[in-house]
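User: I'm designing a mutation panel for pyridoxal 5'-phosphate synthase and want to avoid disrupting the core. Could you give me a predicted structure to guide residue selection? Please restate the sequence first so the numbering is unambiguous.

Assistant: Good idea. Sequence first, for numbering, then the predicted structure tokens:
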Amino acid sequence: MRRTTRAQSVRFTSSIVRLRQDRLARSVTRNMALYPRPGGSTPPVSSSPAPTPVGRAGQFLKAEAQGGLRRRDLRENDPLGQFHDWFAAAAAATSHPETCTLSTASLPSGRVSARVVYLKELDPAGGFVVYSNFGTSRKARDLFGSGDDGSVPNPWVALTFWWEPLERQVRVEGRAKRMSAEESQAYFDTRVRGSRIGAWASRQSTVLRPLSGGEQGPESAEQGDAGQDDGRAQLERWVREAEERFAGVERIPCPEYWGGLRIVPERVEFWQGRQNRLHDRFVYDRVRDGGSEDADAGAKWTLERLSP
Ligand SMILES: Cc1cc2nc3c(=O)[nH]c(=O)nc-3n(C[C@H](O)[C@H](O)[C@H](O)COP(=O)(O)O)c2cc1C
């Protein structure tokens, strides 16, 4: 196998960067915010014919006319209700406002990982609900620990939403718990059949390797590039196996390793972009009085303004 030396890999990287910068220079827009390093050896993206405010991010101006976000605009003691209001506004202004980043951390290493997911429900009892694979995924390892790599359970997660047309961000921090098999099945039943089969077929985030020569047969023929199997054939084989297993079955059971994750918030921040980076930020923090860690509609919350 060919080994890449450190010098080679640095050169390789900088040629990619240059290629990207050439492309960027061609498509540079008024709002581009890449910072051209003074004296940088590669041409800065600002070398496009028309001078543009490259290196300066756009101003957040949408909320200026309404005087920004004030404490009186927010619900007292009700971050979930407040999230509901903002989500409804985001839904009217953008497609897929449910898109968010779910961050988890592995313990004891502290190594963080983040991925985009869809928020699927706001639980009336006070939880943010997402659905995923909790068998093999990285989030599963971070949340529930794995004997294999010595990681231990860490239920703390963060969810981050960015609604650009409204110049609003919401940050949620809390503890995650798996939902019951019944709750997961109820949502699973609403998914299109292909997605239900897919949940059975995919060992999420595990490495897919090419099938060994003799086994490739039909898979590589289906790919139309015989001999070029890069691991996709294995996934397609698992899909076929799942289809065979559930042939004629209308109500496919939800796999034990798949389902809902309820995130019970401890802290929810509402962020409204303002001019000159003087954003408005308000954070709700749950008041703990030694009671249960579960979501409950009767929780008490403080509300404070944060410096931008
Ligand atoms: C727009 C978008 C939405 C996604 N929604 C989900 C989701 O709801 N659940 C999920 O498990 N993965 C979702 N994914 C895939 C994840 O980003 C990620 O690849 C997967 O969950 C494996 O991550 P992990 O191994 O770090 O846990 C989505 C990806 C994108 C780009």
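For picking mutation sites, this is relevant: The domain at 64-181+263-306 is CATH 2.30.110.10 (Pnp Oxidase; Chain A). Residues 99, 113, 115-118, 130-133, 137-139, 204-205 surround flavin mononucleotide (CB under 6 Å).
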